[in-house]
Amino acid sequence: MKAYRAALLYFTGPAQAAYEADGLLVVGPDAQGRQVVQAVGSYQALASRFAEVPTEHLPGRIIAPGFVDMHIHYPQLDVIGSPADGLLPWLENYTFPEESRFSGAAHSAEAAGFFLDELLRNGVTTALAFATSHPESVNALFTEAQNRSLRLMTGKCLMDQNSPEGVRDDTAQSLADTEALIQRWHGVDRLGYAITPRFVPSCSEAQLRGAGELAAKYPDVWIQSHVAENKDEIAWVRRLYPEARSYLSVYEQFGLLRPRAVYAHCIHIDDEDRALMRATGTAAAVSPTSNLFLGSGFFDYEGAERVGFPYGLASDVGGGTSFSPFHTMLAAYYVGREGQTKPGLSLTPQQLWWQHTAGAARALGLEGVVGNLQPGYEADFVVLNPQATPLLARKTALAANLGELLFALIVLGDDRVIERTVISQASGG
Ligand SMILES: [Zn+2]
Fold first, then answer.
1. Which has the closest alpha carbon to 425: 41, 153, 22, 150?
2. pTM, whole model, 2 decimals?
3. What is the mean pLDDT of the segment spanning 168-175?
4. From the CA of 193, how far away is ligand 1's center (Å)?
């Protein structure tokens, strides 16, 4: 066992943040040997009970749950910050050429290692990530995540049409590869498989049908894809499926909406789509830096709350512009505030933080596992330095309440705030 004495941030309910200015976090092995939270609370209340436990004192620091990124593309590491005229030209000119390089094991392994270290440097401890269409890219990311004891989900991208040579796959082979990868990796250590149809235009009907059949056969495997990001993309889907009520309903018709199904964007959807997400337990990965960068539109938070489907935050690198959860939370605030194309609202700092930690974990079906600091949760956490820059030190010192402290970190923070990222390790034996 080990204890940490510092300020503590955790959640007692949706967007209900609790803060202990002088707290104690105790971590130790559970029955399976995983490092989990044993106790969390005020130092005064807990110190005598854990007097024997070695305690690291971190004065002036805040311990908080590790961040959870619901949607990110590891092969787009080098695509970040590429100028393009919106989604479809961006895919064609930058993304597909870069992804074709991941047919090689060496390039995949190097990129996977860099990608995971960059996540950790930014305080992200769990991610649902796209790989490329090459099985080698999936093996590389799982291997590097396993080496770092990370909780990570990824999968081979399915794309057998409307995609260039080098990334396009073969329908039957792609489904056989997917099933072999599920059997090799899903549930191994902290790894999970995600069935990954890229988006409707890049998948044939046979491929989408096969993906849905695998999703039914392996119900605790994740599904990840994209929906309703961009108006040109939606018009394309309408030409492919003129009969379908909406873009989202195409996924429904192939059995791809269910708990643990996560769709990036969900911008241009209506209340019937929202009700379909709620009824099927399908989650949205809200990707605000990406949506602002590619000019795609604004996620409707009011609609999401009114109808009540699961959602959380995502970086969507490389359409997204930052690995930093602080940048993503700030962009989510901008998107929420926008009130010309949809109702505008001010998300509270506690809501923003929840959406990138415990709320994201809940939307992924990982409530009780990661995203919070409560007894039994896996011990993935970050040590934050609220004085990481001169302006942050000045501003956080003025904070009169928790909301002001968290908002100062969201607006002014970046990777410099993340002093340390601690990952739950399985103890030996
Ligand atoms: Zn994406």
1. 150
2. 0.98
3. 98
4. 17
